[in-house]
């Protein structure tokens, strides 16, 4: 099935209009395989079954797409954005699991491959910044170079980072503030 597009006009201010173009379609098997490899590497083989074979995507920008399970018939495009089971995100050429998927894995297996971050690091991260080593309260193994970010205050999952040996920081791959910054 070929991807199709639709347009929504977003009004930020009475005199401003921003046009967002959405593209949607079936997720190529190559990207699904990349996601499965990532989940296998970080969380284990037993969680591959949580990633359905036939996934769909909706892109807001060239490098920002939600990957979701095919929703029930009859749902319109906006309902899909807010109610479809969100499986992963494609952002800046990375395919990463969704926060709800990781929360489910943690409930079933316990927290792993994560960093717990102090309040000042959380605030910076949610604005799209990287996390400094000084902001990390705890690192939870295994150490695979990519980590889930957990708020040290309330234990909430906030997104993903990747350790940069060169910069000596945890580079922001995506955080829950991403959609507000990109689409707001």
CATH secondary-structure class of the largest domain? Alpha Beta
pLDDT below 50 for ≥5 consecutive residues: which ranges? 1-13
Portion of residues in helices? 25-40%
Supply the number of helical segments.
5
Major beta sheet, strand line-up: 1-2-3-4-5-6
Structure overview:
This protein has 184 residues and is of the alpha+beta class. The chain has two domains: 95 residues, Pre-PUA domain, domain 1 (Nuclear Transport Factor 2, Chain: A), CATH 3.10.450.120; 73 residues, PUA domain (Archaeosine Trna-guanine Transglycosylase, Chain: A, domain 4). The protein contains five helices and twelve strands. Strands 1-2-3-4-5-6 form a six-stranded antiparallel beta sheet. Strand 3 and strand 4 form a beta hairpin. It starts with a strand and ends with a helix. The N terminus is likely disordered.
């Amino acid at each position: 099935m070929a991807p199709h597009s639709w347009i929504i006009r977003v009004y930020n201010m009475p005199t401003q209009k921003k046009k967002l173009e959405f593209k949607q379609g079936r997720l190529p098997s190559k990207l699904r395989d990349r996601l499965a490899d990532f989940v296998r590497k970080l969380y284990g083989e037993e969680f591959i079954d949580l990633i359905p074979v036939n996934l769909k995507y909706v892109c807001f920008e060239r490098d920002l797409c939600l990957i979701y399970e095919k929703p029930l018939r009859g749902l319109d495009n906006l309902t899909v954005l807010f109610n479809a089971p969100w499986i992963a995100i494609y952002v800046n050429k990375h395919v990463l699991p969704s926060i709800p998927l990781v929360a489910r894995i943690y409930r079933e297996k316990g927290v792993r491959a994560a960093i717990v971050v102090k309040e000042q690091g959380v605030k910076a991260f949610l604005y799209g910044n990287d996390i400094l080593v000084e902001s990390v309260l705890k690192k939870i193994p295994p150490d695979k170079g990519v980590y889930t970010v957990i708020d040290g205050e309330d234990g909430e999952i906030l997104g993903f980072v990747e350790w940069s040996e060169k910069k000596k920081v945890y580079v922001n791959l995506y955080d829950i503030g991403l959609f507000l910054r990109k689409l707001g």
